[in-house]
UniProtKB/TrEMBL annotation:
GO terms for molecular function: hydrolase activity. InterPro entries: Cof, HAD-like_sf, HAD_sf. Keywords: Hydrolase. This is Cof-type HAD-IIB family hydrolase. It holds the Pfam family Hydrolase_3. The keyword Zinc does not apply.
Length: 267
C-alpha cells in the first residue's frame, strides 16, 4: 500500500496533480499496490480532485475522522467529534487566546461564527455563517473537526496554547494552515484510520509506504513500514522522519515510486 497526504506532498503548490505523479500512481496500481489518500481535507475536496484526475480508491479524510470510498462517494466509517466536547475545548481555548475564532467541519460543509474569518477559495459554496458563537453549538450535522483560527499566532504557537486546556479530551494537530488548528475526537489520527483499513485488507504496517509533510502526518509516517518526509516538510517532520523525498514541486512522491518500481519518470 502507498499512503500519501495531498497538500504539500502529492499535489504541487497550485493544487494540481502533475502528469508525472499521476503516471507513477497508475504504475504502482498496475503492479498491485493500493493507493490510499490520507489527508486533512474533507470528502468534497477529494471529489473535485477525483473528477479532475480520475483517481479512484479509498481516502482517509479529515485527519482520520472519515474513511471515504471515492468511486461511490460514500463514507465507509467515521469517528465524529462530540459537540459538547468541541464546545468545552473552544471555551478553554478562547480563554487562552483572546480573539480566536471557531468553525465546525462536517465533511460536506463548514459552519463558522463571526470571529472565524479564514476563507478558502476551495470551500466556496460550502461555508455557512452563523450569527454568533453560541449558535455554532446548535449545529445538528455530525462534526468531523473543530477548527480554531487566529491571525495573531502561527499554527505551532496556537497548538501549544491549546494543549493545557484540552487535555486528553481531543486530538490536536495542524496541517500548516495559516494560524489554523484542527481538533478531532480523542484518538482520531491518520495512522489510526489507516491501520484499521489495513487490518481489514490483511496488510501489515511493514508493507505500507507513506508520504507526508506536516505535523498531522507524523502518526502515519511513524506507523508505516517506510515513511518519507517531503523535503519541503515542516521542521518537526524533517527531524522526526529519517527518510526524505524530494519536494512536492519536484514530484518527490513520483520519484520514489519510479525508483521502487524501476520505471523512468518524464517531467
Amino acid at each position: 500500500m502507498i499512503a500519501s497526504d495531498l497538500d504539500g506532498t502529492l499535489l504541487r503548490g497550485d493544487g494540481s496533480l502533475s502528469p508525472r505523479t499521476l503516471r507513477a500512481l497508475r504504475t504502482a496500481e498496475e503492479a498491485g499496490a493500493e493507493i490510499v489518500i490520507v489527508t486533512a481535507r474533507p470528502p468534497r475536496f477529494v471529489d473535485r480532485l477525483a473528477e479532475a484526475t480520475g483517481l479512484v480508491g479509498t481516502a482517509v479524510c479529515s485527519n482520520g475522522a472519515l474513511v471515504y470510498d471515492i468511486a461511490s462517494r460514500s463514507v465507509v466509517s467515521s469517528q465524529m467529534l462530540s459537540l459538547s466536547v468541541a464546545r468545552q475545548v473552544a471555551t478553554a481555548l478562547a480563554a487562552a487566546v483572546p480573539g480566536v475564532g471557531f468553525a465546525l467541519e462536517t465533511g460536506n460543509q463548514v459552519f463558522y461564527e463571526p470571529a472565524y474569518r479564514l476563507r478558502l477559495s476551495e470551500d466556496e459554496g460550502a461555508e455557512l455563517p452563523v450569527a454568533s458563537l453560541a449558535e455554532l453549538w446548535l449545529t445538528e450535522a455530525p462534526v468531523t473537526k473543530l477548527l480554531a483560527w487566529t491571525e495573531q499566532l502561527d499554527a505551532d504557537t496556537l497548538l501549544a496554547a491549546a494543549r493545557p486546556g484540552a487535555g486528553d479530551t481531543v486530538q490536536l494537530t495542524h496541517s500548516g494552515g495559516r494560524g489554523l488548528l484542527e481538533i478531532s475526537a480523542p484518538g482520531v489520527t491518520k495512522a489510526g484510520a489507516l491501520a484499521m483499513l489495513c487490518a481489514e485488507r490483511g496488510i501489515e504496517a511493514a508493507d505500507v509506504i507513506a508520504f507526508g509533510d506536516m505535523p498531522n502526518d507524523l502518526t502515519v509516517l511513524a506507523w508505516a513500514g517506510t515513511g518519507y518526509a517531503m523535503a519541503n516538510a515542516h521542521p518537526s517532520v524533517l527531524a522526526a522522519v529519517e527518510t526524505h523525498a524530494r519536494t512536492n514541486e519536484e514530484d518527490g512522491v513520483a520519484q520514489v515510486i519510479e525508483h521502487l518500481f524501476a520505471v523512468r519518470g518524464r517531467g
